[in-house]
Design brief:
Length: 250
């Protein structure tokens, strides 16, 4: 069996989502003074490769510790849709269904190619990565529910389209760029009362997602295999950094 890591590394340079604080990492014991090394980390949970729990998106949702192992680890597909992706592309179900067979209950991981803009990559572009990435349409969110998918993994900073998140208010210059590029008004295209549909509608049905997927994802494009996500068993946690692995039979 071959294992392929679909996770970004974590370090003091790992960026949080837009307007989230950066991690703080320090030593409180050193070999020279204590004979052992111990470190302290203060960090948001939505950093590097991480898994959102229901309670992140919906009031009364379950925590990260409540996710059963047979939901976290099961068969799924890693679908390459990068050939149709550009800044602000709206992702629809057909981007996937014309590429691979997707079965009810699958894990679905998408590859837009945006992981190449993540921090530390040769093409690093933090603004493009977090603010201009392709993102799911409200129609896609409903398709996820209809397919009863286990969970979604995305190689972008959010599963939602950036103009259907608070980015359109936090980054007005990005919103102006979107309007110039598309000729669309995001206030009309994405009603304010329905922001973050991928964080709300699927979460109500127990279908969560992992963000900032990356690592060696290009080794397993358009592949059906066992996929596992391994977050902390964090009671009361609304999200968790996690390792995501593809398990391939040789």
């Amino acid at each position: 069996m071959r294992l392929v890591d679909l996770s970004h590394p974590f370090s003091m340079h790992s960026p949080g989502w837009v307007d989230y604080p950066s991690p703080k990492i320090s030593y409180f014991q050193r070999h020279a003074t204590n004979g052992i090394v111990s470190q302290f980390i203060e960090t948001p949970l939505h950093i590097s490769t991480h898994l959102d729990a229901e309670m992140h998106g919906i009031s009364g949702g379950k925590d990260i510790a409540s996710i059963p192992l047979n939901k976290l680890c099961r068969e799924g597909v890693i679908v390459d849709i990068s050939d149709e992706m550009d800044d602000f592309t709206l992702i629809e179900p057909e981007h996937f269904t014309k590429k691979m067979e997707i079965k009810e209950g699958d894990i679905l991981i998408w590859h837009t190619g945006w992981h190449r803009f993540y921090n530390g990559s040769p093409e690093e572009d933090e603004i493009r990565y977090f603010c201009k990435h392709p993102g799911a349409s409200p129609r896609f969110a409903q398709w996820v529910i209809d397919m009863k998918l286990s969970w979604i993994g995305v190689d972008t900073g959010s599963a939602d389209h950036p103009m259907n998140t608070s980015i359109r208010y936090k980054k007005p210059e990005i919103t102006k760029e979107y309007i110039r590029k598309t000729g669309l008004d995001p206030e009309e295209q994405f009603p304010r009362e329905h922001l973050f549909p991928m964080h709300h509608e699927p979460f109500r049905q127990g279908i969560i997602h992992a963000e900032n997927v990356g690592g060696d994802i290009e080794q397993v494009l358009n592949t059906r295999c066992m996929i596992g996500a391994f977050p902390w068993r964090f009671e009361g946690g609304e999200a968790s950094p996690c390792r995501i692995i593809a398990f391939l039979d040789e």
